[in-house]
Amino acid sequence: MNALDRRSFLKRSLFAGSTVAWSARSWSQVAGANGDVRVGVIGFGGRGKDHLGGLSKLSGVRITGLCDVDQAVLRAEAEKRPGAETASDLRRLLDSKNVDAVSVATPNHWHALAAIWAIQAGKDVYLEKPVSHNVWEGRQIVNAARKYKKIVQTGTQSRSSQAIREAVAWVQKGNLGKILVARGLCYKPRRSIGKVDGPQPVPAGLDYDLWCGPALKLPIMRKQLHYDWHWDFNTGNGDLGNQGIHQMDIARWFLGEQELSPKVMSVGGRMAYVDDGNTPNTQIVYHAYARAPLIFEVRGLPRGKEFQTDKGWSGNMDKFHGGSVAVIVHCEGGTVLVPNYSSAVALDSEGRELKKWSGAEDHYQNFVKAVRTREHKDLNADILEGHLSSALCHTGNISYRLGSRLTGTQIRESIAGDKDLAETFGRMAEHLAANGVRINEDHLVYGPMLKMNPHTERFQGNTAANRLLTRPYRKPYVVPERV
User: Fold this and answer.
1) What would the DSSP string read from start to end of 65-106?
2) What is the per-residue pLDDT for 34?
3) Is the model's pTM score more than 0.85?
4) CATH 3.30.360.10 fits 159-360+382-467, yes or no
5) For domain 6-156, which CATH number applies: 3.40.50.720, 1.10.486.10, 3.40.50.300, 3.40.50.2000?
């Protein structure tokens, strides 16, 4: 190390080496209640860097703890913040009396357990999306937050956009008539992650058992451990639960739905290349809400095979109604396009602009505000909202994972009775054809239409589907049944 003495670093890394004994302290008992909010950041290989930057710039907030299981990543950040305590094991950080709240930016499979342990340790939590790796553990975070009266914000920044909030209210007042379809798009370039011949070595300085945590501890069967965990169902949720959770959340927001959909199905596949990923790069999820369907589309391939080159993917994705990573709300009298996290535009049925909205608050600032007021209703993205939208991604993936490979003709025949689903599939088929995929030969995965009891968050009459609402956990990394 250069700026940080190694002995000092190791000493601070073991600041809570004794057995963790947590008690959920009230805010009045936490140091800094009337002063600075002291935050520990857990995981900063990706989104965590934004957490560090966004929280650091806020008045009355101090970064007092750093945690990452990768020693190289941890040391690099610790050198920039010599006053912060460091730990490679988040349980050590959660036992610190110098941390009032934590932000969690670990891989998805750690989100729920990290949040619940933090809540039980008396910390408020800013939790990256999706808030969970599966449906059941998401509900457990909500239960823990309510039981211990902790503030838990979901990292869906669009919820802090007054522009989108106003657009939602405008549509729900009936200004464009009835909503016909709420549609989310995730057309984002996702190239092949490659294919390895056998298990890969664990990166130096990384505790792989701790990295796996609640997930199955499997051999590393991909070139890149970090980030590409998104494309493995053991640790990630595909682009549906990566980028797509943002647009899924906005679409549900427009519909005003506060429960899981009563029916869900999915169709798609990992198309145009063979690699070590197992999540779909092309997917449709259909949520059959009574008010109007919520249809989600994932496309990781570019708009044509000619763009599948080293430099061709970026900037050459499909668009629909002017959006690539967007939400489109189809109504009787026109559409509303939400092209990003901070704006929206309403168009009449002829495509003429009717109204435009723009602007957003700071999502981290909103979290800190609620930490101070102790009112979870002050949050723009309370954990319940995060759970519901994350769960819509998970239930869509469950249908996909239970699906069978069918020809394009068989799928068209099966969905012919639903014009919205049939139209969406037709465009997906054209997209795949442009990328050299022949869906009558390279079969897609056609998932069953699953029936859900929204009140119990359990599927009806499908044991296999209910099994995928949770996962087998590895001791001691077990999400508790009783929080």
Assistant:
1) EEE-SBHHHHHHHHHH-TTSEEESSHHHHHT-TT-SEEEE-S
2) 59
3) yes
4) yes
5) 3.40.50.720
